[in-house]
Structure prediction request, 1484 residues.
Amino acid sequence: MVKEEKEIANRPDNTAFTQQRLPAWQPMLSAGIVIPGFVLIGLAFIGIGVALFVTSRSITVLEIDYTGIETDSPCFKCSNPDVKNCVCNLDFSIDSLFEGPVFFYYGLSNYFQNYRKYAASRDDDQLSGDLDAFTAPSDSCSPYDYNSNDKPIVPCGAIANSMFNDTFVLYRVVNGARKLVPLDGKGIAWWTDYNVKYRNPSVTPLKNAFNNTVKPIFWPKPAYQLDASDPANNGFINQDFLVWMRRAALPDFRKLYRRITGGEYEKGLPAGNYSLKIAYNYPVQSFDGTKKVVFSNVSWMGGKNEFLGIAYLVVGSLCVLMSIVMLIVYAKFKFPEDD
Amino acid sequence: MLRRRLNRWLGRDERRVDSRTICVGHRSSSNNEAFIPPKFCDNRIVSSKYTVWNFLPKNLFEQFRRIANFYFLIIFLVQVIVDTPTSPVTSGLPLFFVITVTAIKQGYEDWLRHKADNEVNKYPVTVLEQGRRIRKESEKIKVGDVLEVDEDETFPCDLILLQSSRDDDTCFVTTASLDGESNHKTHYTVPDTEKDLESLNATIECEHPQPDLYKFVGRMHIYKTDQEPAVRSLGPENLLLKGSTLKNTQTICGVAIYTGMETKMALNYQGKSQKRSAVEKSINAFLLVYLCILVSKALVCTTLKYVWQNKPGQDEPWYNEKTQREKDTNLYLKMFTDFLSFMVLFNFIIPVSMYVTVEMQKFLGSFFITWDKDFFDPEIKEGALVNTSDLNEELGQVEYVFTDKTGTLTQNNMEFIECCIDGFQYKYQDAGTDLDGFCVTDGPVNKVQHKAGREKEELFLRALCLCHTVQVKESPEQGQGQRDGLMDQVDGLGVDGLGADGEGLHPPPQEQRGFIASSPDEVALVKGAMRYGFTFLGFESKTMKILTRDNDVERYELLHVLNFDPVRRRMSVIVRSKSGDTLLFCKGADSSIFPRVRQEEVERIRMNVERNATEGYRTLCVAYKHLNAEEYAQADAGLREARLALQDREEKLMAVYNQVETGMSLIGATAVEDRLQEEAAETMEALQGAGMKVWVLTGDKMETAKSTCYACRLFQRNTELLELTVRTLEDGGRRREERLHELLVEYHKKAVQDAPAVKAGVTRTWSSANHDYGFIIDGATLSMVLNSSSESNSSRYKNLFLQICQNCTSVLCCRMAPLQKAQIVKMVKNSKGSPITLSIGDGANDVSMILEAHVGIGIKGKEGRQAVRNSDYAIPKLKHLKKLLLAHGHLYYVRIAHLVQYFFYKNLCFILPQFLYQFFCGYSQQPLYDAAYLTMYNICFTSMPILAYSLLEQHICMEVLLDNATLYRGIAKNGMLRWGPFFYWTLLGVFHGLLFFFGVRYLFGNPALQDNGQVFGNWSYGTIVFTVLVFTVTLKLALDTRHWTWINHFVIWGSLAFYVFFSFFWGGIIWPFLKQQRLYFVFANMLSSVSAWLVIILLILLSLLPEILLVVFRKPRGPHAGQLSQEGLLQTARLHLSHHLPIST
Prediction:
């Protein structure tokens, strides 16, 4: 009896786990599976690739650089940093209907929104409407936290301070007459940024919340006056501000400025001549940057991006090619395990 | 640490005073008035490392002494001090986690030690003080106290036995907790101490505490009022060690001589030196490479940053002005902090979690060895034992196997087969194996051919009965049979065979008789003698009783035992018969007996001995000698004097022994069979098939060992044996040195130069025409090779010897002393290519080689537990070695090698995009991934699948591994962790990293990725890269997994699901404790973009494509033997699987 107990106590458990005999699936990547798999994947990829490529091709993009470095550029006069409140007109024409909805982007190059110090230079407490943070901005905003008079800057930080402030007005030139194209500034920022992440302090009028604070140094107007036309588009939930605050990943980037959706332009921009009136405020030449405007329509895959389509086509054809090579090899050396 | 310091201190002390003097019972003698009792340490055992107060600082200190922890601490401190891109939490949290877990584990272990210490220290003991019995706590015992210990109690400190309740002044102890030997050992009281301890006035002079359990020298001065002080020698037989248990004796009294931390047990309680596996060395080498990569990355980035900033307008664009402090900072300081920042940013390339995962893998993985029911031996009712889990993978790398013969290759289950008396052979006709078959009707000894004189016969049998140290197990009436079954070395033998001619004469208790001895040979011999009619009845004080063939009880007074030792290889007893004759009986190995007997007798017996040896029996020769009174007196005096010597006692004893054991006459020889272990031959064959070289290192005779080798198929019929033994050296009649040289050169030519150039590691085909060589060397020749007279020769011989050995399939080294075994292991271990060695043995004589080899395996055999205690792994039987190496070792190696490579790979492709991103963010140390991702990547997202893989993977199933020993060669020489595979994995990591980064980079050529025209920012960029990364590395592992159990499925798909879930969760809430809500809805937004989906799928597939191709293309590259066989194996694996499925489900 005692012996038996001892034996039971010492004998290892005879379970599948302890004996390393758990039932297991042992997948075999044999040619019999891989070749058809490759063909299938390859065909699927080619299909997707073709779709992407065609879609991307169908997207029209109009890009115009307006930095004004070249002397013949209409904005050349504004590129001199000493000139203030400069306005230049950029004329262009569209040969055929620019199918809508048309999205209007501005683009900057050699601009490092992803610079670490720059990226950290913001105070999310302020931006979520915390009034305590209005009087005492976070250290991370330095040197854009207090102005020379030690007044707190709201919104503080380098990102907010450097907000893009060129403004654009688009005219359609019909028979020499300039007809305003309505630009829609709604829905250009992420829904969650507009509705959740960024909050104005719940003070009415909004202006009162900004008592004892100063506007960012670079800004012409305080935050609560960003959009004179729409009082709901002011403060931290101004759409342009939100778009700017979502920092770009790479130094050459574009950001959504407006959508052209209204009225007769719902179908797109008809062929014809257009004139873009630019309030040229934003200096970029000090750091060798450029500015551009981009008109583009989008598809289910977003903006024009040939890379994805080509990549899919290449990978798809690679898969098919590989399966053919494998098939040849297979025919030559009969895999023994595939009988 | 503490203990080591203590030892060093003790060591110093030892040099100052080389002995200690103790007053028994603290009664200083009259003529020793001035003697000041020296201070000795108290009897408190402290095995714990920490106290409540010093735990935190000490434990932290200990932990940060590990180089890896220290590195992470430095990184953490840099993050705290310098303004770095990632918050200190990212590296602090994992470090904190690791440190805390380790601290908790160590704290718990220390608490257990405290508890155990307390139990020992507070244990009540009885101290005799001024005639009174006083109960005391064990820790209060002082050196010199006289203690009383009852039966079945353990001794609280090292005691000198003064008094025993037994009549014969002996007591029995077991040292099971010290060295695992469960047999009863006899200890003796100091002769001539007075019965009344109260009046005993004595001092003890003994050596300072030494860790050797089996050595002790001391001297006791007994002062009597009216006599000269008597001096008695003290040896290990008088010393009762702390930790051993009193058995079979009611009560004893002893005086404490070593207490507390100075007891032999405490001195022995030291961790073995750590063995490091080859994998660990590889890890360290890889770490160094990655550290270089890390530093060079940081250097490149720092340099480029300052080059780039030199361009006008880039250093401080208007939109990103510097603070005043930044402007004021010294340029070089800035450069340095930038360098540190880059280091911190890229430090994830060396993950803290790898160490944790590797340790966990080893710890948990080792359970599979203990759990394996194939290792369970129903006889001893025990399974395998894992003493260290650090060497699991080393089991898959063994190149040399050094095995003991006795007890390892053979069962050490001795059976008396035959004997040879005076040149006549005696053997049972009815040699059935079961015990009852010995019943002989026509007389106790069966004549084979002729018969020696009856006198000689009886002398021989008496010698067998007397010349041993066997004890008769006293059988208490109750439950003898049951206890026999449990005792290791007790052999209950029914003597009914004997009873055939005189049943009625035997008193009933003798029918069940057990013998206890330290060596099974002795039991076999005594039992053999019993079969022939001479029964050893046991000791009665100092008298040995034997029952002769005629049922007379003869008594012999045991005068001296000249103990066995492996150097002399013989033992003797001196007894005085009733008639007053003083006789010396000696038994020992033929080589040690033959030179000491008359030569004409040798010739008659040598033939028999050699024949027996070739049949694989263990032979012993028996000799005797009459001592006349004068001779005896001389011997007696010599022995007594030597035993009293405080210094060089061993040497002196040896000299006396050698002097006494001369001029004997040979009576006969015995042959004892030691059967081969179960499946010994199959195991050896499998090991050789696996490319291991098996060396047999034995203390046994060459002939016996050779026959065992043949039986084990280590030598085959066509094996050409190269012998380098004393015998071959003596051929040709020239000087040994010359002959040695000549033979070495000759063998070298044969085995090394003429052998076709076979590269190391290349498989040896069975059918090949080239010769198999076997090499035989004996201890004497080996010492000539290793310690040649001239220095230059020595190294040259050694080289030749090694080269010959390495080209032989098997090597047999016989007549080895334990240290020589270790010497050989060491020599091979340090030879070119530093091959991985494994030693397997079961006895105390194998301990040195077990400790020396990379992996030491103990067999839970009959020769005590010392080998098991000192081994890294212990298995019950030799046959288990096959599975341990071929299946477990192979799998562990593959698992951990893959684990290590995978870890480096996944961190390389984790950090490479972050490095590349620096080129696009103005070298500003902007992290690509969010801090949460940086922290969790190694802890949560990718850790579990690889851990599960490294515990469960069976790329080839166990049965196939066992059936095809050649598979073992596929991973030989650290095959999966050499620079080749490492380079491949690194390349793969670089490829993946580049692909992830640039794939997304080109996608972000136009960041408007949503169908509503909105653009993605930098965190979306990082999240896409990270998603691709997590999926790719997990699926890469999935591709490598050949053995999908539900656990693998669970952790692989679970990790991916967890990643998705976590990302949603992390981005779904505004976290109040975060300074920046960087990832708010980034993940969800990413998923709403078709392009993001497409690029993720594309990049994952593109990353894995080469891998899939490689798997497929590896096969059809032609009818390569290895690959073909592998395919066949995989097929059988599938077959096996289908076999198992119905059983296990």
In short: Chain B has a mean pLDDT of 79.
